[in-house]
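Page 47, continued from p. 46.
Same chain as before, 334 aa.
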Amino acid sequence: TTATPISVTATVATPADTCAQATGTHNAAATRAQGTGTHTATHDGSTVFASDKVVALYLREDGNVEPSTTVWKYTGTAPFYLKSNGAGLFTWYSDADCTAAAPTQYWSSDGNSINFYAWYPHTAATTLGDGNTFAVAADQGAAGGDAVSDLLFGTPKNGGNPVSPTASAIPLLFHHRLAKVVVNISTIDSQIPPIINDNCSIELGTGIYLDCAFNGATGLVTTNTSGSTGTVTLKSTGVEAINTSTLEAVSNYCIIPPQTLTGKSITVRRGSKTTSFAIPQDGGADIVAQSGYVYTFNLTISSGNQILLQSGDDPTSLVTVAAWTEAPPIAVEL
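Result:
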């Protein structure tokens, strides 16, 4: 009997997929806002991995750590490294540098199912199960700082693990395992110089937890509250419209482990001027960032260099909570 090779494709979850994965509550008003509009699949808004991005993939025969037959070649001692072609397909390698092509992998001849576990970046874990630590970059405004901070975990899209032998490629669906904080900055006074990327920077912190434990088999992330803390510099994505109006703002974001945002500071630096404010409670409850969700704050700087949360479509909440998506945020009033 001819052995059947194993192949995979990959996409990243839409907001609907993300909502289905989430548990718990974000804050007092979070249940109303799960987001609509165009979905975001990775930190840069695409639905597939960019060309040359590398994901790690572990294979485990269901019920066995090692393969039960010699037809299935995988030894189970290390992951494969899959380099994206930018269109959802991958080339398999045996090393993280992607220099040694991996031998073709086959389904077991005895018909046993296989479990698929994958993550990005490929350095996020070294083993299945617990014992892995993942840290986000403190300076996500630097080149690549956001990309290395965007932890994604993937398993089979259709029915999950385990997967029965098939001649079809296995579609892996990746979910964002951390939280995204978006800060939009605009001005209300024509005397203020335009807010542009080279004279405005945003920081989240201090006291932001940077480390988390990551389970390579379940995708579970547990923030390390005794680990490293600090400030996180946000990445600017340039000037864009916010809400449904013509108001423009400089949009900035960072990716952090799940944690409480209330009490943390947002600091805006514009040339020699620095302004900070502490994130308040929302509806009498702490704002708690969870895996796979985006927390958006729309801020306005006055001529006196004061920061205000801008009034908008939903005056009942201080933050817009949505599945990881590029839907227009709702401005709110403090």
